[in-house]
């Protein structure tokens, strides 16, 4: 058995451990505490473009996404897609927020709050 063949199980084990460790840090999408924290962050950072209700029905930003309808999300609506859009920005109108929201948990709280704006049917489809 070659050196690389012996390393393969170790590499797979490390990848599985890393994925598990990352998943353990993501707050539960149904956590009232996470959604409440996300709501606070949303009211502070996001209402200027997406509005207080998330519908983006404002004259100022005509292309802001209606966050209540995951079917119209430009860059996908999985939890990971939403996280990436918040962290890295999306399109020309959505700036990256990873420098303002340096705590990764805060971005996940925002993801959970945004998903709370959806119907139960929409959440279960993801």
Automatic annotation (TrEMBL):
SUPFAM superfamilies recorded for this chain?
Cytochrome c
Signal peptide span: 1-24
Q: Which UniProt keywords apply?
A: Heme, Iron, Metal-binding, Signal
Superkingdom field: Bacteria
Q: Where is the Cytochrome c domain?
A: 33-118
Cross-referenced Gene3D superfamilies:
Cytochrome c-like domain
Alphabetized GO MF terms: electron transfer activity; heme binding; metal ion binding
The protein depicted here goes by the name Cytochrome c domain-containing protein
